[in-house]
Write a structure and sequence with these properties.
disordered N terminus, globular, binds CIS-heme D hydroxychlorin gamma-spirolactone 17R, 18S
């Protein structure tokens, strides 16, 4: 039903906006009512008459007003002019970075009171549920680009707390390319499509990006992450999130500690292969957006735990790196991550534009108890985000857009401006005043007034960086060494691909030379792939980001000599992630007419019971005639999907069905491709013979021992047994042990 705005006594034009009202989540938990606060703005048009924007009912929405049936249109036609004018203005500038995104509503709840660490009210009471709006994004591509671009993913969370909005505007990678905000426009200009021909879209694989990074050793740590599979996630629901910068938590006693924010996904951290990413971009450029939408719509709510790494103030200088340097992380081996609360996304937006597009995040949106540090990247961001909303959302009143409104009341003397919504009724719009009784008045700290942490600063003004900022390679090396063999292989391949797309030989060579500072064998492998006879030597200074009058040696990368060098960090490898659930994983049941209907049904039931999603894929749409004369509904024809859109493939028996599939090149490609991408493959009855990795592929089904990892079925395995094995393989995500062999499959 449409939300009627009309009250009983009046025409209902008075709207309250200055109270915190309660509401409930999908689970029935009580919240502070952000979702309900959006109600007055929701409009469905159901059962309503068509009107103009002024509420005048429209009688004819088919014909413009003309002088006679065949006559010229009349300027007087306010219906036509209003409709077309609004249409002409439908687009607003896209975000200059993070343009492509998708979002969801949800809520956050802390596990235990965190009063020792922070006075932030929403982190005190496990009974309090705080509504959130979370937007995920890629960085480089434009709004219409593909979800599966190799890129960092934005992970921006807006908490609607009782004390005001807190935005944790992070990424899925814990470090960043650059150390100082002054370099951000350079970085983004380098990665965006090249200015003369606007090529390539949503890709870093081009000359300007590698030209820039090869001259900026500080980017080397981040380069390792973006060349890893972290930059091509399987799902937005299966990525970590990081606040990146070191922030401060401040408690009631004004004691401050440094903090790093983490989001840990309960489904584990998983990625796709580059070959898949390329193919998904063609098959379904909305792959991540759709995946998030469908998971939430089906009740498989994605969840993350909020993790905190807390560092005492007197430990600020205890590390080999600088806590203020955003190209460094704090290894979990040095400071453990404490999981303090849970984020659940449980509602899709009603309107993409009004919510996902118009939401305005800002690292400077903080509440009492959360404060900043002097990280020079964070300091620059504190300026940028308001500025960007001014151009994107058209003026200074973007906080009044429903999705951006805090649930906490807003009272100040800011007035007017483009599209102002609030009807300020007071005569005084200044402070101090006596005519308005001194209102609105300042809030003391005890009343929740924000008091900036009184950090002591005593130094000369200068344009410099901290000494430890110049160790650009130690953590890049740590990341490389912490990867599994599979992950290392993927990084090498990614670098071969990216640099292989670079046309300027000197840029390719300089970059490979730079990689040698991270790891010699990495550089050698990349060099081999690029056809370089040897790893080129990069002549110092490596760092070309030097002020005009700077001495190169004082801006040069130096390998610090860590007192206790950390060889590996388990947390940096996705090989060590959670692999215990098949929930929300998608399985294609590949079938044709004559399929074993019982096998299809039994498998579907087993998968659904475990929370996985089963879809029947067949040579044609409509229905299949199964054995026992039963009809099976086809979800997708082979023409409309590819195995890259699934996590696993099951081929049920049925002589006629398997015969048809074997003769269908697209069906054969479907299984071969899934095999190549190390996905779980299962078969029962004759279906087993279609599985490429199965030893029984050309003969009798093999015994369990002879099977390759992730290829299940055969022998005398009945459907429930095969289903159980398939679920186990699905939970492991991929059978990487197959990769060296599978790579040779021409799919
Ligand atoms: Fe952003 N960034 N950024 N950024 N950023 C924006 O703000 C900027 C940085 C991040 O879903 C813009 O509203 C500067 C780091 C996310 O709406 C803009 C610098 C991190 C999002 C902007 C950085 C981020 C943005 C563009 C260097 C990870 C998307 C549109 C000083 C911690 C939020 C907008 C959303 C968006 C500027 C660096 C994360 C232009 C100047 C580091 C997740 O203001």
């Amino acid at each position: 039903m449409a939300t009627r705005r009309r009250g009983k006594q009046t025409n209902g034009s008075k709207r309250k906006n200055d109270h915190v009202k309660n509401g409930t989540t999908a689970n029935g938990d009580v919240t502070n009512g952000k979702l309900e606060a959006l109600d007055p703005f929701r409009e469905s048009g159901a059962d309503e008459m068509l009107t103009t924007n002024q509420g005048t009912r429209i009688n004819d929405n088919q014909n413009s007003l003309k002088a006679g049936a065949r006559g010229p249109s009349l300027l007087e036609d306010f219906v036509l002019r209003e409709k077309i004018t609004h249409f002409d203005h439908e687009r607003i500038p896209e975000r200059v970075v993070h343009a492509r995104g998708t979002a969801a509503h949800g809520h956050f709840r802390v596990y235990q009171p965190l009063a020792d660490l922070t006075r932030a009210k929403f982190l005190q009471d496990p009974a309090v549920t705080t509504p959130v709006f979370v937007r995920f994004s890629t960085v480089a591509g434009s709004r219409g680009s593909s979800d599966l671009a190799r890129d960092v993913r934005g992970f921006a969370v807006k908490f609607y707390t009782e004390e005001g909005n807190f935005d944790l505007v992070g990424n899925n990678i814990p470090v960043f390319f650059i150390q100082d905000a002054l370099k951000f426009p350079d970085l983004i200009h380098a990665v965006k499509p090249e200015p003369h021909n606007e090529i390539p879209q949503a890709a870093s694989a081009h000359d300007t990006f590698w030209d820039f990074t090869s001259l900026m050793p500080e980017s080397m740590h981040m380069i390792m992450w973006v060349m890893s599979d972290r930059a091509i996630p399987r799902s937005l629901r299966m990525m970590e999130g990081f606040g990146i910068h070191t922030f401060r938590l401040v408690n009631e006693r004004n004691e401050a500690r440094f903090v790093k924010f983490h989001w840990k996904p309960l489904l584990g951290v998983h990625s796709v292969l580059w070959d898949e990413a390329v193919k998904i971009s063609g098959r379904d450029p909305d792959f991540h957006r759709r995946d998030l939408w469908e998971a939430i719509a089906s009740g498989a709510y994605p969840e993350w735990e909020l993790g905190l790494q807390v560092i005492e103030e007197d430990q600020e200088n205890a590390f080999d790196f600088d806590l203020l340097d955003p190209t460094k992380l704090v290894p979990e081996e040095l400071v453990p991550v404490h999981r303090v609360g849970r984020l659940t996304l449980d509602r899709n937006p009603d309107n993409f534009f009004a919510e996902t597009e118009q939401v305005a995040f800002h690292p400077g949106h903080v509440v009492p108890g959360i404060d900043f540090t002097d990280d020079p990247l964070l300091q620059g961001r504190l300026f940028s985000y308001t500025d960007t909303q001014l151009i994107r959302l058209g003026g200074p009143n973007f906080h009044e857009i429903p999705i951006n409104r805090p649930v906490a009341p807003v009272h100040n003397n800011q007035r007017d401006g483009h599209m102002r919504q609030t009807l300020n009724t007071s005569r005084t719009s200044y402070e101090p005043n006596s005519l308005g009784g001194g209102c609105p008045f300042q809030a003391g700290a005890q009343m929740g007034g924000f008091v900036s942490y009184p950090e002591r600063i005593a130094d000369a003004k200068m344009r410099r960086r901290g000494e430890k900022f110049f160790d650009h390679f130690s953590q890049a090396t740590l990341f490389w060494k912490s990867q599994s063999e599979t992950e290392k292989h993927h990084i090498v391949q990614a670098l071969r691909f990216e640099l292989g797309k670079v046309e300027t030989a000197a840029v390719r060579e300089r970059m490979v030379g730079m990689l040698a500072n991270v790891d010699r064998s990495l550089a050698e492998q990349v060099a081999e792939g690029l056809g370089l006879a040897a790893v080129p030597r990069v002549e110092p200074p490596l760092n070309r980001s030097i002020p005009a009058d700077g001495k190169p040696e004082s801006f040069e990368s130096r390998r610090a000599k860590p007192a206790r060098p950390l060889e590996r960090s388990e947390a940096l490898s996705m090989a060590n992630t959670i692999k215990d659930t098949a929930k929300s994983r998608k399985v294609a049941i590949l079938a044709a007419d004559g399929v074993d209907a019982t096998a299809v049904e039994t498998m579907k039931q087993a998968l659904t019971a475990a929370g996985a999603v089963a879809k029947v894929v067949a040579p044609h749409g409509g229905t299949l005639s199964g054995t026992r004369g039963s009809d099976i509904t086809v979800d997708f024809s082979l023409l409309t999907v590819g195995s890259v859109l699934f996590d696993a493939v099951f081929v049920p028996g049925g002589a006629q069905s398997v015969k048809t599939l074997k003769a269908d090149a697209m069906a054969v490609l479907f299984v071969n491709e899934a095999y190549k991408h190390c996905k779980a493959l299962a078969g029962t009855g004759e279906g087993v013979t279609l599985l490429p990795g199965h030893n029984g592929a050309h003969g009798a089904p093999s015994s369990v021992e002879e099977r390759e990892e992730g290829v299940v079925g055969g022998g005398d395995g009945d459907v429930p047994t095969v289903a159980a094995e398939l679920l186990k393989a699905l939970a492991r995500h991929r059978a990487w042990s197959r990769e060296t062999k599978a790579e040779h499959v021409p799919a």
